[in-house]
Each structure stands twice: as C-alpha cells, then as structure tokens.
Design goal:
Elements (H helix, E strand, L loop, with lengths): L10 H13 L15 H13 L7 H16 L5 H14 L10 H20 L7 H20 L3 H14 L3 E2 L7 H17 L3 H12 L8 H9 L1 H12 L4 H9 L3 H11 L5 H6 L2 H53 L4 H20 L6 H17 L7 E2 L7 H27 L4 H25 L11 H25 L3 H36 L1
Helix pairs in contact: 1-7, 2-21, 3-4, 3-6, 4-5, 5-6, 5-10, 6-9, 7-8, 8-9, 8-12, 9-11, 13-15, 15-16, 15-17, 15-19, 16-19, 19-20
Length: 529
C-alpha cells in the first residue's frame, strides 16, 4: 500500500459494515451450564463425529439431520411434537444444546418447521426420487432450517449480496445466453459456496429459498398441493443447482473471493470498531492484512486437523472393510488370508494421507501483495480491478484435443500399470477394488485439504517439477475419489454399524433411564411432604 496516499472509504463499504454490525448475532452458547449431558452419549457423539469426515461448522447441523432421519425411519408416523422433543433431548445428551437456554419463541419456530416438513413427507409423490432418498433430502432441509433457528446468520446474506455487488462488475457475459435473474442466482450461489463452505444439503436449502422466496412461510395447504406434484417444483430447484455454467461461475468467484474471506473473518470475530474505522480508514486495511497473516497460520493448523481426521476416517473404515470383505473373500477364494495384500491395503492409504498433509504449502508471498491490492480496490473504489473476466472462454485450440488424448492414454497407462503390479503381488479382485477405492479417496481428500491451505490464494501459482509430476500421476485417482467419496459416505460400514446397531439402542436406553429417574424423583418428592 502506498503510505503517502490516504485511504478514503466508499459509501458502499461503510453502509455494509454498519448493516453487518446491526445484523450480526453473536454465538448464543446454547450448551452453557448444560446439566442434561449424558457421558455415554457424549463419548459416542465424539466417536461418531470422528468417523464421519466433515467440516467443523457442519457438525451440529449434521447431528440434527442424523437424529431426525433415525427417528423418522424407525417411526414414519411420528408426531411432530414428539420428533422435536426427542431431537432436543438427544442434542442435550450429547452437549450440543442446553434445553433450558432455548428461547420459547425458537421452540415454536422449530415446531412449526417440523409440522411443515412432516406434511411434505406425508403427501409427497415423486417419480424422480425413491422414497428413502426423498426422506433424506426433506429431513436434511428440516435440519438446515432448525440449524438456522439455533445459529441465525442473517448477516451472511448481507455479505453475499455485498460481494456480488463488487465482483459482478468484472463479469463478462459475452456470448452467454442467460437471464439477469438466473445469472444473479448462479453468481450468489458460487459466492456462498466459496465463502461459507456449505455442504450439498445446505446449498440446496439456500437455493430452495432463493427459488421459492416464501418457502419458510408457506402454509400447510400450499405445501400439501406442492407435495402432491413434487417433481415439477423440484425441477426448478434442480435447474438452479446443476446449471451448465455453475463451474464457470465458481471459477470466476474463486478469483476474487480471498479479500472477502478476510472481511468476514474480521467481522465475525468482532475485531472492528466501526466508528473508529470511519474516522481512521487505514485501520480497516491494517486489520484485514493482519487477519491474512493469522488465517494463513490457522490454515496450516486446519490442514493438520483435517489430515488427522481424514487419517482416522480412512484407517477405521479400511480396517472395517478388511474384516467384512477382504479377509472373508481371501478365505473363500484361496482358503487362506494373503497378509501381504492386507498389510499394503491397510497401511499404504494412511501413509499417503500423512505424506500429503506434510507437503501441503501455504500461499506464496506474492499472494500477500495481490490480496493487499484487492483490498485497497474494494474499500476505496468499490471494485477489485478493471480487468473483465470472460465467463465462457473461446473454444479450445486443436492442440488441446491432442493433449487431452495424450493425457487419456497416460491415465489408462497408469491405471493399467498399477493393476499389473497388484496382480503380480497376488492381490485378488476384492483387494484390487479396495486398493483403488482407498488410494482414490486419499488422493481426493488430499486435494480437498490442499484447497484449505490455498483458500486465500487469488491466483494459482506454478508448482515445482516434482509436485507437477506427482499430481499428474495421482490426477486419475483424484477424479475417481471425487466420484466415489460422496456416494460412499452413506454406505460407510463403520457408520452404518454405529447408527443402526449402537446409536438407536443406546439412545433408547438413555431415554428409558431418564424416564425412570424422573419417576424415582417424583416418588421421593411425595415422601418429603
């Protein structure tokens, strides 16, 4: 930053800062002084969370979703009042909330939400979705709505709108046939994805409210009508979610998102005194650049936490599959267990995961300058740069086709060589499948974790030769891992075992014991008078 040139904040940034401050609601600390916690349930929840690889900010919402699904699947005719009561009880046992701290108005909102979504499930008719998939999706939406009640974040939409107002100036839609409203939805969806890091149910629910603005206030009769012809209404949502230009909008937004990650982090941590910043605008710039250094350091810590969680997830899942599939198949096929293939399959994926986490790098020093320049542009000129970004690039030259063909042949060669080597080491069919599965999942997890470290990078820097070669070799596995990781999440044997054989009986026993203790306490009180 040129120290000789004074910083003058734009009207837009001042207005946004004031609106954000007014809308921001600090953490309610819902589990404060919670005496309803049950030690067994708390320990189980920590194990369950460790087994399911997920971002930390999604853990609470996913716990709500898991409880709702289990309760509904075990009792499809459950009344909404009972569903909500059971949900609050289980969240309190695992120390997510203290039921005594929940505002009665919030409980009413949760109850109304449960009423609405149970009506949808009761009347929904769909040729597109199988019943279990429909149940999961609708209850995921309910979990998102309940999560919003517990952790309101109205300021997030303000931030998304502000970011949209800044970066849309750089968007060049030349040659693109898309309406203004449709383009706005796609750009805001990309901003949401990169800035708030929602999972698919969250981005689906957010888009649902954008496509149907009155979604959360629809009366039951309207919901019944909508549910009876569910597919046409969902198709409108699906078009917004899976738009053919979605990746283009994500690529565009990624180029400019770093300064706004810093801005959100500073605002949420309440490090800014808005009045002081208006008097001394340079304070805003200084705060944001200090936050950059802090987030780069936290990024390294997040990489290691994510690596350790991924390691635990892979190790437990791999051991489970070794006992469930690999060892029995070996005995059936050959009458003995091939310990060489078993050891390789159990140890190699975690070792690769650990190695990948070790060599992940932070953004280069040049990125600091790029971010600083972008921040100055945002707060003083209401734009990042004058250079437009062409959303749809011109058709690729014929050389791209040659490179693409060469890469496809290289991919087939890598996969073929690995299969040959595994067969040479006496891997059976199941062992080969598991090897490819876990190496692919590890490769994809490593790729995702690397993106955590580089979320503040405004431009992709060129890697050294060794890194480029390693990435080239593992790129086929990353693609496979991306395809199978999300689908496998629902069929993780360790998670299925916990959900159906451990969690359901455990929570039932806790519920019975709590009822028994309340009965005993009532009898004791009767004896006191």
């Amino acid at each position: 930053m040129d120290s000789k040139k004074p910083i003058v904040l734009t009207i837009e940034i001042v207005k946004f800062l004031k609106e954000f401050e007014a809308a921001f609601v600090a953490d309610k600390n819902l589990k404060r002084d919670n005496d309803k916690t049950v030690g067994t349930a708390l320990i189980y929840e920590k194990i369950r969370v460790a087994l399911e690889y997920q971002e930390e900010h999604l853990i609470f919402k996913n716990a709500i979703s898991r409880i709702l699904r289990r309760k509904y699947m075990l009792n499809p005719g459950i009344e909404s009042k009972q569903l909500v009561q059971d949900l609050i009880n289980e969240l309190s046992w695992a120390n997510y909330v203290n039921p005594e701290k929940i505002d009665p108005l919030d409980m009413e909102r949760i109850q109304r939400a449960a009423d609405r979504y149970l009506v949808i499930l009761k009347y929904a008719r769909s040729g597109r979705f199988k019943r279990p998939d429909l149940i999961k999706m609708v209850l995921d939406w309910l979990a998102c709505e309940i999560d919003e009640v517990f952790i309101p974040a109205t300021e997030n939409q303000l931030l998304i709108d502000y970011v949209h107002s800044i970066i849309r100036q750089n968007l060049n839609l030349k040659g693109v046939k898309i309406g203004d409203d449709e383009s706005e939805i796609q750009l805001k969806s990309a901003i949401n994805t990169l800035l708030l890091k929602p999972d698919y149910p969250l981005i689906q629910f957010w888009t649902l409210k954008l496509v149907y603005p009155d979604w959360s206030t629809m009366d039951l009769e309207t919901l019944k009508k909508m549910s009876r012809s569910f597919d046409p209404y969902y198709n409108k949502l699906d078009h917004a979610l899976n738009h053919p230009l979605r990746k283009n909008y994500l690529s565009f937004a990624k180029r400019y998102i770093a300064p706004f990650i810093l801005l959100r982090s500073v605002l949420v941590s309440q490090k800014l005194d808005i009045d002081k910043i208006i008097d001394k605008p340079a304070l805003l710039f200084n705060h944001l650049m200090e936050e950059y250094d802090e987030l780069v350091q936290k990024g390294r810590e997040k990489v290691w936490r994510a690596t350790m969680r991924a390691l635990f997830f892979i190790l437990i899942t791999k051991i489970s599959l070794a006992f469930i599939l690999e060892m029995p198949f070996d005995r059936i096929l050959t009458g003995r267990v091939d310990y060489l293939s078993l050891v390789i399959n159990v140890t190699l994926p975690p070792l690769l995961m650990f190695a990948a986490g070790t060599f992940i790098k932070s953004p280069p020093k040049k990125n600091y300058i790029n971010v600083a320049s972008s921040i100055i542009g945002i707060i003083t000129n209401n734009q990042i740069e004058n250079k437009p970004f062409l959303l749809v690039k011109p058709k690729k030259p014929s050389s791209f086709l040659i490179f693409n063909t060469a890469y496809s042949l290289f991919t087939l060669g890598v996969l073929g060589l690995v299969i040959w080597l595994l067969v040479y080491l006496n891997f059976n069919f199941v062992s080969i499948l598991l090897f490819f599965f876990f190496i692919s999942v590890v490769s994809f997890f490593s790729f995702r974790i690397r993106n955590i470290a580089l979320e503040l990078a405004m431009k992709r820097s060129r890697d050294d030769t060794l890194t480029s070669v390693v990435e080239l070799i593992f790129l086929p596995f990353i693609r496979i891992g991306r395809t199978v990781s999300d689908r496998f999440a629902a069929f993780n044997p360790a998670i299925l075992f916990l959900d159906f054989l451990i969690e359901a009986p455990l929570k039932t026993i806790i519920k019975i014991l709590n009822s028994w203790f309340r009965f005993i306490n009532t009898k004791k009180e009767e004896l006191e008078f």
